[in-house]
Amino acid sequence: MAYTLEQFCTESHAILKSKPLASALTQMADRLARLLANPAFVAETFKADMKPGKRELFHDPELDFYVMAHVQQAGKAGKPHSHGASWAIYGNARNATEMTEWQRTNPESDDHAELVAMSKYSLEPGQTRAYGPGMIHSTAHPKDAWVIRVTGTDLDKLPRYHFGKKDKILEGA
User: Fold this and answer.
1) DSSP states of the chain as a string?
2) Stated pTM of the model
3) What whole-number distance in Å separates Cα of residue 81 and Cα of residue 87?
4) What is the 3-state secondary structure (H, E, C) of 130-162?
5) 87: Cβ contacts below 8 Å, ≥ 6 apart
């Protein structure tokens, strides 16, 4: 029997309640990969003619985690950011997400950030990766992509950290 969204959400709830966060995120990422391997889930969640954007698939009211489906447009590249006190797990259902993990090299008390790219890799269909609180990363989509993102809260309501013009961002890893 194929692994379902309902199973993923039920198991994720139990894992988050019973495990330390780092362990929980790793286990949830593994289960998200199982969910992405279910062609029926992918077909029900995404359609070829969907417009870019995001939609909520599930919200756990007790623990406040979300499962979101994102349709990413080709050529979209995000700036380095973190999810503040929250976390995120990314998983691809179609095409790739180019990921870069960053490290801040100067004190947080400085009025600007200096970031260095520490790791660059591609999340291919069926692959997942967890990003704990404060982990700085960026995404890019060379082609249209279908992405599932699980977050520890509604990220639109949480102070997050974006890095921009006054910051020094070094691409070389």
Assistant:
1) ----HHHHHHHHHHHHHHS-HHHHHHHHHHHHHHHHT-HHHHHHH--TTPPSEEEEEEE-TTT--EEEEEEEPTTEEPPPEE-TT--EEEEEEES-EEEEEEEE-S-TTSSS-EEEEEEEEEE-BT-EEEE-TT-EEEEEESS-EEEEEEESS-GGGS--EE--TTSEEE---
2) 0.90
3) 12
4) EECCCCEEEEEECCCEEEEEEECCCHHHCCCEE
5) 21, 25, 130, 131, 132, 133, 135, 151, 152
Q: What is the pLDDT along the chain (173 residues), one digit of tens a residue?
A: 799 999 999 999 999 999 999 999 999 999 999 999 999 999 999 999 999 999 999 999 999 999 999 999 999 998 888 888 899 999 999 999 999 999 999 888 887 888 899 999 999 999 999 999 999 999 999 999 999 999 999 888 876 566 665 566 555 43
Long-range contact pairs involving 17-22 (C-beta distance under 8 Å, separation at least 24): 17/63, 21/87, 21/132, 21/133, 22/132
